[in-house]
Design goal:
Helix content: 55-70%
Strand order of the largest sheet: 2-1-3-4
Radius of gyration: 26 Å
Order of helices and strands: HHEHEHEEHHHHHHHHHHHH
Strand content: 5-15%
Number of strands: 4
Number of helices: 16
Largest sheet: 4 strands, mixed
Structural class: alpha/beta
């Protein structure tokens, strides 16, 4: 019975032209408008990652010198452009003159990094040093306790570096991509329209079809769970098509492997569905449901940067609790942090917040719907 209802709900939702128009075609059209408006600014953004000019001061041959060589001589994607200096004064002069963005200095076994100003470049240079020190400690520990495993450990570390190399250093993302992140968040919240439509179709107080559903010999939770699965699948597919369109048709890269973006947007789509279920469970008037879902979607999207790209950062610096509660800001922040910094603490904070919001809204909605009774049908 679950599979029958699941397939039926998918067919019913796909036959509604409004869902295809607003949940799929409108986001694609808006993405196209963004592309023609400022797509060239993304593709030719001077803030896109290029090899960082960096200085290196060393006393003698050290393992870190091999790291500098490896990161600067990669023919495909060099991360650093290394200038070697015999003394720190030379490196300081180069930094003040703007010839380098920072420099590493090695004295004995101690390595430190000096940067000119904070930003993506500073984060990258510090991350390189942090990764090197972490891997050095790992190898030292293995060498002391299990010297026979040192070769395998070196191979594992090298393969991990190759895996992280293409996307951990903000190679493809642009500040203007924030508009597309917010667009994906808006499209995900539009999933609330799918879930309110689905819920009205199984609620006796909303439609004639709902009366037949409530009177049919099928458990209410079976209908609800099948409907939820159908709406989440559809919204996940819609989000996936939008992501593929941005990546392969508009040629705007997210800066990370595509599967990671699809995982995040699938969670975002589920969150949009949960918001719609929550509104549908608490509000009994169809017109008010539509107004609330539209209002939540557009206000949340505006505060995440859909119309004004910097507003999310302004809110983060002044009233961060708003971003912690704004579903569109969570998804936008998740994609932004993933593309710029990788899977950092902030990325997981936003991802877990979306998952908790989805589960919390669904639990409340199910509790409300289970207690709903009618005097007569």
């Amino acid at each position: 019975m679950f599979c029958h209802v699941f397939v039926y709900r998918i067919k019913e939702l796909l036959r509604n032209p409004w869902h295809l128009a607003w949940n799929l075609l409108f986001p694609i059209g808006l993405a196209t408008a963004f592309f023609f408006g400022f797509g060239n600014l993304i593709k030719e953004d001077p803030e896109l990652f290029t090899a960082i000019p960096v200085g290196y001061v060393k006393e003698a041959d050290q393992p870190f010198d091999e790291v500098m060589t490896s990161l600067s001589e990669d023919k495909k994607d060099p991360i650093l452009k290394v200038s070697r200096y015999s003394g720190e004064e030379q490196a300081k002069k180069a930094l003040r003159a703007g010839k380098v963005r920072g420099y590493y200095i090695q004295k004995g076994d101690t390595i430190s990094v000096v940067v000119g100003r904070n930003g993506i470049t500073s984060t990258t240079l510090h991350q390189i040093l942090k990764e090197y020190e972490n891997q050095k400690k790992v190898l030292e520990t293995i060498g002391a306790k299990h010297p026979e495993k040192i070769a395998a450990a070196v191979e594992t570390i090298q393969s991990r570096q190759n895996f992280l190399h293409p996307h951990v250093f903000n190679q493809y993302t642009s500040v203007y991509m924030n508009y597309f992140f917010s667009l994906i968040a808006m499209a995900s919240l539009y999933g609330s329209w799918l879930s309110t439509t689905m819920l009205s179709g199984i609620s006796a107080n909303m439609t004639e079809r709902g009366k037949r559903y409530e009177s049919a010999p099928i458990r209410k939770m079976t209908s609800l769970s099948a409907g939820l699965a159908a709406t989440m699948l559809l919204q996940g597919v819609f989000n996936g098509i939008l992501v593929l369109y941005i990546q392969y048709v508009l040629q705007l890269h997210f800066g990370v492997p595509l599967w990671q973006v699809l995982v995040v947007t699938t969670v975002g789509g589920a969150m949009g569905i949960a918001i719609g279920i929550f509104i549908g469970a608490l509000v009994k008037k169809k017109g008010l449901q539509m107004a609330l879902t539209l209002g939540v979607s557009m206000v949340s999207s505006f505060l995440s940067g859909l119309m004004w790209g910097e507003i999310r950062q302004i809110i983060e610096s002044r009233i961060p609790v708003v971003n912690r509660l704004n579903p569109a800001a969570m998804l936008t922040g998740c994609l932004y942090n993933l593309g710029n910094y990788g899977m950092t603490k902030n990325f997981y904070r936003d991802l877990y917040s979306m998952i908790l919001m989805t589960l919390g809204l669904l639990l409340v909605s199910v509790a409300v719907l289970r207690r709903r009774n009618y005097d007569s049908l």
